[in-house]
Each structure stands twice: as C-alpha cells, then as structure tokens.
Amino acid sequence: MNPFSQYIDHTLLKATASTLDIIKLCEEAKQYQFFSVCVNSCYVSLAKASLSESQVKVCSVIGFPLGAMSTATKVSETAQALKDGADEIDMVINVGFLKSKAFDTVEKEIKAIKSIMPNKVLKVILETCYLDDSEILKASEIAIKAGADFIKTSTGFGTRGASTHDIKIMKSALKGDVKIKASGGIRDAETALEYINLGVKRLGTSSGIAIVNGTTSKSDY
Amino acid sequence: MNINAHLDYTLLESTTTEREIIDLCNKARENNYFGICVNGSYVSLVKQFLIDTDIKVSTVVGFPLGCSTTKSKIYEAQQALEDGAEEIGMVVNLGYVKSKNYVSVLKDISDVKMAIGDTPLKVIIEISELNKNEIVRVSEICIDARADFIETSTGFSKSGATLTAIKIIKKTIKDAAQIKASGDILDYESAVKYLEVGADRLGISTSFKGLNNNTRQQRNSKIYKQYLESAAKKSEGADLNTSSKETTINKL
Q: Which residue in B18, B65, B99 is closest to A19 by CB distance?
C-alpha cells in the first residue's frame, strides 16, 4: 500500500456532483485503499452501498460549508447521516458565533453533536481562512473541550485552504488523543508530506490519486 | 418607483456577527424592506428584533450547496418556522439535476413544501450551474412541486442572477409562481430592470446602492414614522442625564 493512502479522505463535495461521480469516487477509494470517502450528506447511503464490501469508511459533512444553520438542525443532519451509514462526521463550527465571541454557544453546539455519536469520529472544521491566529487557537481549544476527535482546517469553500501556519497554531492547542486534519489546497505529494511531517494525521483532498502517484492535480480542493 | 417593497435584505456570510445582524434589522426597518434573509442560526434573533414590524423573516435551508438529504431540509425548514421564519428559501439538489434524477429533484422540493404548508417556499435553482434546458426543466419541476417562488441564485456560486435567466423562467412558468432574482443586484437601476422583465422579488445585500433620498412614499410610511419616533425616544432616553435635551428644545 502507498504510504499516503491511509491518510487520505478522498473528497467530493461540489454541489453538482452526480451519482455517477460519487460511484467513481468510491471505486477510486477502493482501488487506492484510501482511508475514507468524504461526501455531502445526500450521498452517504449511496457511498455506503458502493463501499459495502470494503474497508473504506464513509465520512459526511454537516452544516456545510457555512456552519451557519441552527444547532438543532446540525444535530438532526448528523443523526440522519449516521443512520444512513456514515462512519465519521465533519461538521463546520458556527463561525459567526465565534466572531461574536459567543464561545459557550459554539462549544454547546459541538457537544450536542458529539453526544449523539460518542463512539464515532467527529472532526470539527474551523475554517481558518476567516480566523486570525488567536481565533484559530480559541476555536481549537473550544472544539477539543467539546469532545472533537479531530480539529480540521478548512471546508475548501472559503477564501483559502490549509496552511502550515494554521497547523502550528492548532498543534499548540492539542490535548490527549485529538488529531489534526488538514484540508483544502493539498494537491501533490510534497505538500502532503509537509503536513504529515508537521504531525497531521488526516488529509482532506480531491487529489488523492495525484498524491499517491507523485503527480500534481489541478483540483481546487 | 419605490422598489423597497420588493426587496429581501440579505446577509448570509458565515462570518456574520450578532452585531451585524442587528444592524441589518435596523437598516431594514429604516428602509421598510419587504423582508430580511439570514442563516438559520440567526432566525430567532432577527424575529426578536422585528417582532413589531411587518418585515418578513426569511431563511435558507440546504444552503448553499443543496446537498443535504431531503429529511434534513425538512427538519431545517420546520426548525426555522419554529424559530419564527415566515418564508423559506431552499436550494435545489443540483447533483440530482446533473444525474437527471428528476424524480428525486421533484420529491426533494415537494416534501419540503408539504412540510411547511402555507409558508411561502422559494426554490433556489442556482442558474450559474445550469444550461438553458436545465433552467426550463427545473423551473417546470418547481411548479409541479408547488413552489411559491423560483429564485435564481445563492450568491455563493460563480455568478448571480441574469436578465436572460429571468426571461427564460418567466416564459416557462408564466404566472404559476413568482420569481426572485438574487446575487449581483448591486444598485437601484439594475433592480428596476429585473422587476421590469418579470421578477417579483429581489435579494439584495448590504452593499446595495438604493436611491439617495428617500421617496415621499417611504417617508410617509407608518413603519418609518414609528421607527423615527422610537429612535427619537431612544435618543431622548440617552440624553436624560445631560443638558443637551433642554438645549435642543430651546433651539426648537
């Protein structure tokens, strides 16, 4: 197996992705033995069915990509995704509440989601492109306190993806078993390696095949 | 032409703070806009601030990708109604459109419409991702699903409304539903053009440039007067501990 394979969440989140695109994504994930596929919640059951005979996990995004829906709605969307077969959940924090310094509300929301999936992996997307350094640190601390299994940099729909600077700040907040997922803008093996060397345990990318083949992808995510 | 009664004053950026939402409400009052459109997590706050007005609180579901499950969209819409929303804008499932799975596109919309009953449903079809045939097809589906409005854009895609798209939609649906143009409507002049080609409602953002001076209609509106009165009362309250109130009265 390629050393990169198990780091990769093979990702397709654009609004226009068709059922055939999702099936192809799953086939690729099987072929390259990626850790998971990451899809929008309407495709979780399709992905689960496509991957039923394999080790590849299914990961669903929640409150994506703005993170601005109500907490009750995020919890309900999560419950539905788990029911449809999601193994892991990538939720977006409420960036507006963070900017309003309503830190308790941000924390409660993450806790509410974690509480319905105690034994499954919850990744919390901070969307670092909109945050300054102190906000990245604060958001990391809140997510970890609230029970996140991973803190994750980006949705891929913001103004930029991950940066090594983001990762260094997030690392300084890490406690216990919490890990970091870098996502957005990781298109080749060199960049992937740079993140892995910094301690990143998972990579969210649409360029997984380019990464394992040692080429560069033109994808935005 | 007073266009304000056609405008949904909109702020959907993920970084929006409570302070910005309150400013949005105040400005909507000031201009007597038809409605205000915010993300789900701010519906209850907005409702609280606009409870004494006729301004309609509108929110979005499955926004901006339209890729959550139908069940999630239904839950999100019902939660929004509970929080005080009076209109719902849902994004069509573009992946299903591109898969030519039109049955699921229809079911997605009609299930949400059934769940919210008489509450107006605007279906955002994201024209920037559709070709002409798809715009026609999806518009027809919206009518079959009993949508109250067809809306052009989320404002989060490559581009927003176009006059051409409004004409195509209007020709397709006639008067079977209303049309909302949104995204890239930046000033009064272009707003008027959209209304002239068949749009009934326009989504505008905080950077919209309206007419400089309020029209007489606006100045005479009941809500605007109430707003001025309440604003005056507030500033009186703030001035109570100073002598400036007396000074003002003396000047008058």
A: B99
Domains and CATH numbers, chain A: 5-213 (3.20.20.70)
Q: How close is the nearest chain A Cα to the Cα of B2, in Å?
A: 32
The token duo for A201 is: 């345990």
Cα–chain-centroid distance for residue B120?
11
Distance from B113 to chain A by nearest Cα, in Å? 17
Sign of the torsion formed by the C-alpha atoms of A13, A81, A162 and B42: positive
Q: Pseudo-torsion of CA B210, B211, B215, B218, nearest 10°?
A: 10
For A73, which of B15, B66, B75 is closest by C-beta distance?
B75
Helix (H, G, I), strand (E, B) or coil at B66: coil
How far apart CA A33 and CA A13 sit, in angstroms, is 20
What architecture is the B4-217 domain classified under in CATH? Alpha-Beta Barrel (3.20)
**Span B159-202, pLDDT tens digits:** 999 999 999 999 999 999 999 999 999 999 999 999 999 999 99
What ipTM was assigned to the predicted interfaces of this complex? 0.95
b/e B87-116 (16+ beta carbons within 10 angstroms → b): bbbbbbbbbbbbbebeebbbbbbbebbebb
What are the residue ranges of CATH 3.20.20.70 in chain B?
A: 4-217
Residues in chain A with CB shorter than 8 Å from the CB of B99 are 18-20
Phi, psi of B212 (to 5 degrees): -65, -50
Q: How far is CA B45 from the centre of its chain?
A: 16
A136 is written with which tokens? 């990245």
Q: What single letter denotes the amino acid at residue B17?
A: T
Tell me the C-alpha to C-alpha distance, in Å, between residue B8 and each of A135, A190, B20, B45, B149: 32, 47, 16, 17, 13
Query: What is the pLDDT, as a whole number, of residue B248?
Result: 39
Which residues are within 8 A (CB) of A68 and not within 5 positions of it... i.e. 6 or more apart?
A94, A95, A96, B12, B14, B16, B39, B40, B41, B42
